[in-house]
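Re: Re: token formats

Sure, here are both.
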Amino acid sequence: MRRLLAPVPLAVITVVVALVALLAYGLVSKSPDATIDQALARGEREPAPALTLPRLSGGGKTSLTSYRGKVVVVNFWASWCEPCRAESPLLERWHKRISKRGGTVLGVDLLDVSSDARSFVRRYGLSYPIVRDREGGSQHDFGVVGYPESLVVDRKGRIAAVKRGPLDDAWLRAHLPRLLAEPA
């Protein structure tokens, strides 16, 4: 027992316990915020977190609350993300479809070089509003852990659907028409 309580074994045990605790913290902090997903699984719509960020082009800021009364597909992306490139034409088509019915797409460029993001927008001919989150703070607020991720905010500012990973036409068809038909 004396040997176990000697300074060296005690220090080794302390370091091992600290490393295990740090690993557990890292795993928990990197997982998506399950609050939104759990609420949707219960059939509840949580209010969307505040989001006010600078516009990618043109100066000024845009706030998610300024779209209250509209259905908003909030898409988190980056110019270097291959799946983001693949889904951009789909998002543009849907933006054109829903803009006439009180909907929009709002792109959130995360942790990206602004000039690269602007080139991306030009390359894919994106016409929907895009903001930039150079520091990535919105990732935590919305539980984003990968690119791309999207969520749909209803006309009352509540999160109505979440898609972790690339969007497809079937997912958008399953969610947007129903939400666009809801009153504000």
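Second one below.
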Amino acid sequence: MSAHPGAGERVKLEIADIVRAHRASLEAKHVVTLEQRRVLSAMALCRTAALGGHLDVCCSCPLKHPSYNSCRNRHCPKCQGLAQERWIAARGEKLLPVGHFHAVFTVPSELRPLAQKAPRVVYDALFQAASATLQELAHSRVKAALGITLVLHTWTRELHHHPHVHAIVSAGGLTECGWKSMSLKYLFHVEVMGALLRGKMLTLLREAHNAGKLPATSAELEQLLLRLKRHNWVVYVKKAFRHAEHVLKYLGRYTHRVAISNGRFVAISQEGVTFRTKEGKAITLPPTEFLRRFLQHVLPKGFQKIRHYGLYASAAEAQLLRAREALCCSGSEAARTNIERLQSWRDALRHLTGRDLSVCPNCGGQLEQRPLAAEARAPPETAHAR
């Protein structure tokens, strides 16, 4: 499926190769939704001649290299770098210079089948329940408004369906009298958070069913809610971040992560896909089963998987400014560069990462962009980009 490597060259393994070779078999065995088909099509064509591009020509050496356009689909592992850097730059301007807690809210396995049938409804409910749990405890225990960022993940390292929300919570909040700090040793009791999460989720699911948003009969829903009510819902708090830059580093890894990156592939063949999981282990799946698992994590169109609450909510800019004043900091307004106003994505990439695509990687000379000649337009099966 991939080109044969030369001496000392590593084969480039990509999910796009699996899609192109096994999509037909997948669709013959499994139901694939319209949004999932769009994701497969985008990844198959990403950075191939089918999406157009240009020829990079060095003015100082013989280098000529075709560069093809990306699909920009948020589920594509090749298209997250610049979006991630833009997001980090924007959040860095709003993040408060205090320590932050890291909590994870998960749902019982019994709820996962319903989440697969009605992902938008269940994931929205999880966001609402997790944020309301944190805000309720902040109001009752700390008597302050906290800064909260939630990030939805739906996978395990083996690509099983496992919806959970990562919560980044400021270690302190804004009160009527100013800023109130919290000890990094303790957020809230995890059993209390779990009980609140469960109660709020059950209420939201019942409300969604009454509004006709869930594919279940009243009897089926009541049976499900009864099973969910018997569970202890798991919330755990990981090691806190002591400094804001540690939060940004973490968020930079997790906010735009997709179910699997191309770097985790060990081998790809007609018989199996082998990829790394954790603790040095690897797993091999039939190609169609791999694609089926991957597609479980395609989010509904337009669904926001990163959301902000409390002081970090978009509607709370005045409160956030008051919090900064109480902390005697002004943010990064003076040094801010508006990334969105940079002339091109190349300018943004240079500003955010230091990577300059106008410089020849061989000799350091200037690269010129020229139209692709017909002979440079390789078919999608063999085209690879920089």
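The CA atoms of residues 17 and 69 lie 17 Å apart. Residues 1-9, 331-343, 381-386 have pLDDT under 50 and may be disordered.
- S.
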